[in-house]
Every structure is written in structure tokens, then in C-alpha cells.
Amino acid sequence: MNTFIEQAVMAPLKLLAGYAAAIFPNLVAMGILLLAGLLVARVASILAERLLRVLGFDHLCNRLGVTAALLRAGVKTDPSRLIGSSLHWTVVLVASVAAVSALNLAPVNQVARSLLAYVPRLITASIILLAGYVASNFASQAILIAAVNAGLAPARLLATCSRWGLQLLAVAMALEQLGIAEQIVVVGFGITWGGLVLAAAIAFGFGATDLAKTVLEKKLLPTRTDMPDDLRHW
Amino acid sequence: MGSHCRTGRRTPMSHERIPLAPATENRLREIDFADILVGIPSYNNAATVGHVVRAVAAGLAKYFPTKRAVLVNADGGSSDDTTAVVAQTAVDHRQLLIADRQSVLHRIVTPYHGIPGKGSAFRTIFEIARRLNARACAVVDADLRSISPEWIEMLLRPTMEGEFDYVAPFYLRHKYDGTITNSLAYPLTRALYGEQIRQPIGGEFGFSGALAAHYLDQHVWESEVARFGIDIWMTTEAIACGARVCQSFLGAKIHNPKDPASDLSDMLRQVVGSLFASMERHATVWAAVTGSHPVPLFGFPYEVGVEPVHVDVDRMVSHFQQGLTDLAPLWQEILSPATFEHLTDLNGRDGKDCRIPDELWSRIVFDAAASYHHQVLPREHLLKCLTPLYLGRTASFVRATMGLTSVEAERAVEQLCATFENRKPYLLERWDERQARWDGSANADKDGAGVGRSS
After folding, report:
1. B209 near B34, Cβ under 8 Å?
2. Distance between CA B332 and CA B389 in Å, rounded?
3. Is residue B230 classed exposed, middle or buried when 0-12, 13-18 and 19+ CB atoms within 10 A define those classes?
4. What is residue B262's predicted lDDT score, i.e. its pLDDT?
5. Are B125 and B230 in contact (CB under 8 A)?
6. SS3 of B136, please?
7. Where are the extended beta strands (E) located within B162-294?
8. CB distance B185 to B279 below 8 Å
9. How many CB pairs under 8 A join A and B?
10. Residues with pLDDT less than 50, chain A
11. Closest residue of A to B444, CA-based?
């Protein structure tokens, strides 16, 4: 009976205790790494935020129109804090991966390495998305103003289409960077744009023949003028 | 000129030479020096420039017969015969009863470098004036039809005699001619700098050689100043640096219609951009000015018939109303809440009642200037956003002065100027305030970026 208990119960328990004893230092190391990571993340984000404020980073963003773009996107955090937060979460992510790696388990290590290898792509995709977003807002604003000044009735439609078009382009580029369904994204984007252009061309051809004629006449026959008044603003 | 500057921000005399064409350099060596220089910027003006050259040549021969004079044509690459016309146009002095011409009129026809535009052409003219040590200079547009020899005397005499450094033109114009001047450039310049210069963007100016050198030393030649912004910049720079300013009566101004392809929005952006940029540079000068005073006017003012101007008010109102609908989010960022609310009250009103009164217009202009200063929007967007507002104001002015004589319409312009002057404290308040850019004043306050936006 004693032999049975020894073999059936105690042996696995000893084995488990052995594993636990072997893994315990790794667990402690993981905890320490995680805590240290959180602490470093907090300190680094606060320092970075303060340093950026002292250097006038917010004013620079204000001048470059980045702040206005963020406000329009509903991001009411100032750029310095945004950078601080990004740094915080990046450090937390790296510390978490390092902490998990401390367990020294082969499958976990493999996942951690894959995650770390993916980080540069993630950062590049984020930059593409951010740049695309800012550029789309700037371009749509410019198009809206130009269209209103030209007296075009669908000014807002033109501006909205340009914004979504550019944002779609940025999303497609970001997804390609992340390696998510690369072929589908490229083909889908091509089909969407091609379809839009074809639809516009057909609509213009069928529905606005006279307008096309007038536009071409204006371009090709410079003698025709349609100045409605002779007001001299100068 | 340095003694005239009171801003304390003038750059020292750099003596940095502007590059000129080799043929122009050779011509300058031949001419060596000049007492008087008259500049004509041009671009495809073959039809009118001959008349301008004849008027300049006759004016110099008649009123400055003993002075060594140079005529400079800075051309922007005309594809017609503009430069040939300038070089070959001759004047029959006997026909003009001029007998005592004692000095040859030297001519320089040169291309200019830099951003294509009137300002870059002027820069070349200023450089030639500096190289020749010219004492008195004048510039006249190449598309003028009403210029006469007397204009040359009126523009040059005040600086030639050393009493003044800058001569602004004073024209008789139709009440609807020069609406950017009437609704913006004149009221704002007058309220800011306290000088009642009626045509601050006239196009024809007289100035001393020293002031030309001062202009050259300013680092503005890559901005709007290189284009249509040059006229208002020359006037504001002259006032701000303490130059002695006067006006000369030139009669009626008749010139070729502007190129129909030239976009009003671009023109407005260049003029207003130049004006607002000058405000930033000379904030210490204009902030201290209250009220305004008349500027000496030379010449013999007389009444003259001016060409009638047909105006399509409904089209302007429709532009303004589209702006009210489509650009409202952008205007909201530029204007103070009270101004924006007042403006939105106009939305939906019938065309005839859709008017921007003087008071509201002055606040719109001041808000726009302050927002330009605080950079609440990309500056180019901000300036272009103003086009529908300007058209709305122009339509309001036309409606308000319809049926009035030129003198009565002029009174309306003077009333607008008085409103601008009275509302100047509002501009100062808006200029100094900083925008609350983000929620949470703690964030903004840490970097000094924000206090609440007051109206």
C-alpha cells in the first residue's frame, strides 16, 4: 500500500515540486521584470512628456497643424502626453515580452520572439496610418476651400470623398505592411479605385455631356468669356 | 534710411548683391550712376507698355531735364513683344513742347530672378537702383492706360526734393473699383498704423533710393511679397520703419482688366497674407498707435468721369451663402464665438437681407488677423477661407451704396475706417490671448499654451 502511495501520489507530487522548484526562480524573475518594466514605463513616460513640454514640442505641433488634425480626430490629448503614453505602452509591451521569456519555456520563447520581430512592422504601420490621417485631413480641407471658392455645389462631397480615398489608401498600405492578406488588400484597393473612376467616367459621360462640352469649349476656345461682371477687386 | 527705422528690428545693411543677368551687369557698368530711376514690371503687356514708356520718357524730359535718368523694365518672360516695345518706343519731344532735354534717358530691359511675380520684378528694380545709387525712384504698372507725364513728376518730386521717403498714389476710381482696397487694405492699414493712406496697394509708388535699399535688406522675398503682396508690403514697411510718407494726386486710374484667369482667391490670399505677415513683424509699432491722421497730399485734385462698373451682387451673395454652409466648421475655428454666432444668424436670410455690417466686418478681419498670428489653421487655408466672407462684405457694400454718388460712397468707406479704428482694442485683446488648444487646462498651462478662449 505504502509503495502504491509512494508511486502513484508522492512521485508525481515530487516531480511537480521539482518542476516548481526549478521554475520558481524564473517566476520570481518574471515578476521582477514585469514590475521593473511597469516602473520604467511610468518614469520614462513622465520624463519624456516633461522634456517635450520644456522643448516646446506642443507649440511645434501646433505650428505644423498636427494638433488641429488630432483635435479633428477627437483626440483631445496634447501631443507631448500622446508621445509619453505611446512610450509607456511600448515599454510595457517590451517588458511583458521579456518577462514571459524569463519563464524559459520553448513555446513561450518562440511566441515572444515572433512578437518582438513584429514590433517594427507595427510601428511602421502606425506611422503610415497617422501620416495618412493627417494628410487626408489637410488635403480634404484644401479641396473643400478650393471648391467653395470656385463655387462648386458639391464641395463637401468632394472633400469627403478625398478624405476617405486617402484614408483608404493609408489603411491598405498599413495592412500590407503588417502582412495581413496582402494580395486581397492590393487587389481590393485596385478594384475599388478602378470602379470609382469608371463609375465617375460613365456618370459624367451619360449625365453631363453638356457640361463636358462647355468645359472643353472653355479650355480650347479662349476667345469665349463668360465674365458675369467687371468688378475690379484690386 | 537706417535713421528712419523705429522698430529696432531692421536687419543691418547686408550689401548682399542680388544676381542680375550678365547683359544687365554690363549695362550698369556703362551707365555707372543715376539721379532718378523709374521701374516698369511687365509680363505680356505689349499692347499698353508703349504708352507707359512714352509717358515716363516725356515726364522725365519735361520735369527733370537735367537729371541723369534710367528706365528699368523687369520682365517676367513675356511671350509677346513687350521687351522690344520698351526698348524701341521713342518720344517726339517737340510734339510735347519739350525743348530743353539735356540728358539721355538710359534704358535697361532685364529679366528677373526668383519666384515669378510682381514682387520679384520690384526686387530687381530695387537692386539696380542700389547699384546706380539712384536718389529718387518710382514704379509704374505696364498695363496703365491713363498714365500721363505729370504722374512721373508727382511720384518723384517729393523724394527728389528730400522732403519725403515714400509717395503713395491717390487716384479717382469708381466706387466699385478696388474693393480689396476699400474694404480691407485701407481700413486695416489706417487702423493699424494711424496713417490715412487712401491707396496703400495702388501699384504706382515713389520712394527714395535709401528706402529701396532698406526694402532689399528685408528677408521677405520668398513669401507673398514676391507676388501681389508687394504693394501693401512696401506701404506698411515704409510706415513701420518710420519713413516720411505722403500722397500724390494722379487723377483717374484706368488700366487693362486683370487677367480673367487670375484667381480672386489667390490675389486676396497674397494681399491679406502680406498684410498679416507685416502685422506680425511690426506688432510693437502698430499696437501703440491709436486713431489716425491725414497724410500730406500733393497735386491738384479734380473731379473726373470714371468708367462704370457692372457688378453681379447675387453671385457674390451666393458664394458667401455657400461659405456659410460649407466652411462653417473652419470659420468657427478662426472667428470668436460671438462673431461666428452673428455670422450664422445671416444663414437662411433672403439675399437682400444677407448683409455684413461694418461692425461685424471689422471683427471678422481682426479675428482672422489674430487667428493667423496664433496659427489656429494652416495659414494658406485660413487666408483662402476668407474669400466668401470678402465677397459677402463686397456685396453688402455694393447694396449699401447703390444709388449713392462717389462722394457719398467715399463717406461710407470713411465710416468703415472709423469703425476699424474704434474696434482696435478688440484686435489687441484677441492678438494677445492664447487659445485653449486642448481639454484640461493643466496640460496646456504646463507649457504655457493655453488659457480659455474669450470672446
Report:
1. no
2. 13
3. buried
4. 54
5. no
6. strand
7. 166-172, 195-196, 205-208, 245-252, 293-294
8. no
9. 117
10. 224-227
11. A78
Query: How many Å apart are CA B253 and CA B234, to the nearest integer?
Result: 20
Other beta carbons within 10 angstroms of residue B224's beta carbon come to 27
Complex-level ipTM: 0.81
The pLDDT of residue B102: 67
B13 band by pLDDT with thresholds 50, 70 and 90: very low
**pLDDT score of B301:** 84
pLDDT of residue B275: 94
The closest alpha carbon to B242, from B4, B9, B3, B1, belongs to B4
The residue with cell 449699401 is B400
Burial label for B5, CB within 10 Å (0-12, 13-18, 19+), is: middle
The answer to whether the beta carbons of residues B43 and B78 sit under 8 Å apart is yes
From B204, B232, B227, B171, select the one nearest B410 (Cα to Cα). Answer: B171
Burial environment of residue B49 by CB neighbours within 10 A (0 to 12, 13 to 18, 19 or more): buried
Q: What percent of chain B has pLDDT over 90?
A: 61
Give residue A73's pLDDT. 63
Decide: B402 and B315 in contact? Cβ < 8 Å. no
Model pLDDT for residues B83-131, shown as the tens digit of each residue: 999 999 888 877 777 776 667 889 999 999 888 888 999 999 999 999 9
Q: Which residue has the higher pLDDT, B38 or B115?
A: B38
Q: Look-up: residue for cell 447675387?
A: B314
- Mark yes or no for CB contact B327/A144 under 8 Å: yes
Provide, as residue numbers in chain A, all residues whose Cβ is less than 8 Å from the Cβ of B315: 151, 228-229
| pLDDT tens figures, A147-196 | 999 888 889 999 999 999 888 889 888 888 888 877 777 787 788 888 88
Best mutation target among B272, B334, B375, B398 (most A Cβ atoms within 10 Å) is B375
Task: Residue A147: name the closest of B314, B6, B384 by CA.
Answer: B384
Q: How far is CA B130 from the centre of its chain?
A: 22
More reliable by pLDDT, A172 or B132: B132
B289, burial (CB in 10 Å: exposed 0-12, middle 13-18, buried 19+): middle
Which helix H or strand E contains B297, and what residues bound it?
A: strand B297-298
**Contact call for A67 and B438, based on CB within 8 A:** yes
